[in-house]
Amino acid sequence: MIQWVWALILIGLSSSIYAEDTCRYVLDMRLTNQKLFGTPTDVQEIVTPSDTEISCRTIYRININDEWRSATGSATGKTRVEACTRAIGIGNGYLLSEYPPDTIRSTTETLCTDFEDIRLKPVKIGERIWESNVDIHVNPKERNYFTYKGARCRKFTERVQVPQGLYSAQGVICRAGSTPNSRWLVVDKF
Amino acid sequence: MKRNAILRFALSRLNFSLLACCVLLGCGGAKNHTTGQNAPRSTVQQSSSGQDPYQYKDKKELPPQAMTAGEIASLDPSGKDCTNQTAWERLINNQITMRGLDGKNPEDLSLEDREFNASAHQILWSLRMNCSAIKRGN
Known about the structure:
By secondary structure, chain A is mainly β.
């Protein structure tokens, strides 16, 4: 019995260590404005103050060729807002690798953070999510952001597994705050 | 003296008879007010003589009827003016509620309900998006 308890504690400790420290490779691929949908979203920041200025490293999500990718950027400024706004500027951004390290050659550095690894996932009405937890709409005409009850909203599509097979559901998410790192609310799914 | 006694006796008999008649036949509205069984009946009579509570006050507004998935998909509220937006939204939301689909995720629905739900919500959101664009002057 005691052995089982120790085994469970060890499993718990190892999983928490794994969750805290996710390392990704910064690719030698600078972001440009080509084929980007929208602006950087789901921004997570590390701010390091020094004597003279504030340094900000950001990890964010950007949609390139209809696919969500992680990117990183860093910049300095006199204030946190100034530094972090510069850090999500497209010209300062580099793509992050989501592939195993042995398949990548053009990396510049390794970036280890305890930030959440944001990925596509099935969502439910009423759930609070990151914007890039859901895809952009498959129909380009339905992709534009719109305002509903004062909030910035957009439609999304999600492939849903039902007993009859796969079904393409649509939905609407609206931003629950006004900052680049605000979460989004799943307002509708149909 | 004897005549007075006879007259008093006759009057008391008459009073008793009148009281007896009053009790048997009911005097005025006293019996209606005191009997509980009559109260609800009078309420029903009052209601039925006036407006039926289950009828719509405005005869032009018909009670909502459930639509099929095909019928709801054939609705086209894409008018350029959004003055009827609220009425359209109410109509579509009534249909969703009547079918018991409020707040349901598509993966929890049958194929038929999912089609109905998708058509209804598609119309709702196209209305909201178009009208918000018009209000912004786009």
